[in-house]
DNA sequence: GCGATATGACTACATCTGTAGTCTGAACGC
DNA sequence: GCGTTCAGACTACAGATGTAGTCATATCGC
């Protein structure tokens, strides 16, 4: 939740460390969750045009993610191959829960009400949610 | 909305300004959404013990929120009475959507899948969501 | 083998956020 | 009226984040 806010106390994925992954860092993680390992240059190819970043920016973000324990490095000649150390689903789960806790006191129904009101639910979403609800009731 | 991260571009509630409300600032807004107008001292009474903050901290957060356009001030003698300029529901809606956009590509069903997996859905939530689904299908 | 180069290491700086201290003066209370 | 006090205004500082530049060097390629 984007309230951005520095000194938070949640782990990137609940594993180790206590740092958060920032928006910019998350964009880098997304690239590597899609495909890894990759080099810094490869990551930049995928993200620099859309985000209007330059290579030094990506390198900084990668280094910070390594520092935070979110990425692993594997030497490959003069460069590193970067791989995620946290799973996307774990990260997404933690962040989702954190937002629900923060904005909705941990309750999912109010969140759903909000999304429904704002027409953020497609017919597909509805069908999928109904399917999930059926499974939950088993 | 959590990835904390400074220079974001979303408005507190889509009204004016381009600043985000941080976690700490949000705690202050919550107090004033519950009851306003209130003075800085009153806000501190409600939040300083639980957050282990002192009065200067609250005053800073209030001033920043005023600067961001999220709070209005009404002189009352030597002090101000603070009131929200943005509605909680608007803020919560924006933040929810932002997170769904960011983590789930704007789709709500995957979010529910995550919450369901993590047992974040109570029986009450499920019943409520079903009710909302029924209304949506009308 | 050697010059070129890519890339990590390191640095820079502005802004935001978290937390709090200091000071002044208008309001307050006696 | 006057001393006191409270609270806004202002300041401070550390850490996080966004964005990027510089440099040294090991690897690369010829």
What distinguishing features does this structure have?
homodimer; about 140 residues; Arc Repressor Mutant, subunit A; 2 domains; two-stranded antiparallel sheet; about 55% helix; elongated; DNA-binding
Task: Walk me through this protein's architecture.
Chains A, B: This is CopY family transcriptional repressor. Chains A, B: InterPro entries: BlaI_family, WH-like_DNA-bd_sf, WH_DNA-bd_sf. Chains A, B: Belongs to the BlaI transcriptional regulatory family. Chains A, B: GO terms for molecular function: DNA binding. Chains A, B: Keywords: DNA-binding, Transcription, Transcription regulation. The structure is a homodimer of 138-residue chains. With 138 residues, the first copy, chain A, is mainly alpha-helical. Chain A folds into two domains: 104 residues, Orthogonal Bundle (Arc Repressor Mutant, subunit A); 32 residues, no CATH class. Helix content of chain A is 57%, strand content 9%. Chain A has six helices and two strands. A two-stranded antiparallel ribbon of chain A has the order 1-2. Chain A is elongated and about 55 Å long. The N terminus of chain A is likely disordered. At the A-B interface, helix 1, helix 4, helix 5 and helix 6 of A face helix 1, helix 4, helix 5 and helix 6 of B. Chain A binds a DNA duplex (30 and 30 nucleotides) through helix 1 and helix 3.
Distance between the termini of chain A: 32 Å
CATH superfamily placement of the largest domain in chain A: Winged helix-like DNA-binding domain superfamily/Winged helix DNA-binding domain
Contiguous helical run count of chain A: 6
Looking at the structure, what is the overall shape of chain A?
A: elongated
Biggest protein-protein contact in the assembly:
A-B, 53 and 52 residues
**How many beta-strand segments of chain A?**
2
Instruction: Name the average pLDDT of chain A.
Output: 84
- CATH class group of the largest domain in chain A: Mainly Alpha
Low-confidence runs of chain A:
1-17
Oligomer: homodimer
Judged by helices, strands and strand pairing, the structural class of chain A is mainly alpha
Shape-level CATH architecture of the largest domain in chain A: Orthogonal Bundle
Main β-sheet of chain A: number of strands, strand sense, barrel status?
2 strands, antiparallel
- As a percent range, the share of strand residues of chain A is 5-15%
Cα-atom Rg of chain A, whole angstroms? 18 Å
Give me the side-by-side strand order of the main sheet of chain A: 1-2
Portion in helices of chain A: 55-70%
Keywords (chains A, B): DNA-binding, Transcription, Transcription regulation
Family (chains A, B): Belongs to the BlaI transcriptional regulatory family.
Pfam families (chains A, B): Penicillinase_R
Protein name (chains A, B): CopY family transcriptional repressor
């Amino acid at each position: 939740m984007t309230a951005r806010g520095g000194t938070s106390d949640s782990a990137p994925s609940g594993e180790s460390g206590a740092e958060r992954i920032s928006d910019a860092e998350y964009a880098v993680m997304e690239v590597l969750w899609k495909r890894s390992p990759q080099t810094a240059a490869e990551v930049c190819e995928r993200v620099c045009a859309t985000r209007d970043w330059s290579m030094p920016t990506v390198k900084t973000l990668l280094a910070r993610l390594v520092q935070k324990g979110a990425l692993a490095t594997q030497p490959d000649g003069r460069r590193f191959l970067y791989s995620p150390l946290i799973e996307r689903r774990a990260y997404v789960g933690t962040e989702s829960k954190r937002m629900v806790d923060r904005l909705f006191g941990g309750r999912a129904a109010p969140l759903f009400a909000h999304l429904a009101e704002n027409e953020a639910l497609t017919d597909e979403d509805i069908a999928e949610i109904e399917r999930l609800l059926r499974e939950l009731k088993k």
